[in-house]
Amino acid sequence: MTSTKKRQGKPTMQPVLDENTDLKCVILDIEGTTTAISFVKDILFPYIRKNLKKYLETHWEEEQCQGDVQALREQSINDSEEKKSSADKLQVVSPKILSNDENLELTRQSVVDYVLFLMDADRKVTSLKQLQGHMWKQAYSTGKVVGQIFEDVLPAIKHWISERKKVYIYSSGSVEAQKLLFGHTAEGSILEFISGHFDTKIGAKVEVDSYCKIAKEIGCKNKEILFLTDVTRGEDNQGLWLKIQNVGILCYFFSPIKIHIN
Questions:
Q1: Tens of pLDDT along 32-61?
Q2: Residue 72: strand pairing partners
Q3: Does the model's pTM come out above 0.90?
């Protein structure tokens, strides 16, 4: 498994900032921007599916694992009580996680069933991210997974830093998962080049206010920030990017058809 990959049919990163001397901070998305979408879809998520049952069997008695299980159990209870949950919208009954007082094997299987249910429904709940992060940490530390980045990412980051510009990450993946990815590439850790990380705790990526909060957090004016992503989201979300433009943040899209808002 390689950790660098050529960017197919898309512009390279490095020239972007040179076009605007006012910019001081670069915020990078991950999926499709620094890293191929296939890395998450074909490597990280399948790793969870393949190893979940064994992971629970091995770590069940550990405090961290029990904390993950309890968080998932509480989420499953919320799913049953919340009429506006994703499960209700899909008209699918959410699996319930059994208590630890039940048969051990059945209880562990109920955790597996619920985790797979969340993944199948593409639920981005904290309890799921927490368990996934702990499993990926083990995978990275043992070399079973190597962080993958496009080959132009590190040279671009170094170029921007040489121009006294700071680089940040903003992704729907947890901060812990972000640090694992960039901390375990074939080139080693590149975390020293990244000034900070943000996930959905700062706000959803589809909310303009999230970007304003990040600007305040990193001490930059909106006009001094460039956000790089591959997510154009079509006409449905064109209004979002225009709103981001209106608050002064420059968005650049890595897509086959270049859309440059300025």
A1: 889 998 998 999 999 999 999 999 999 999
A2: none
A3: no
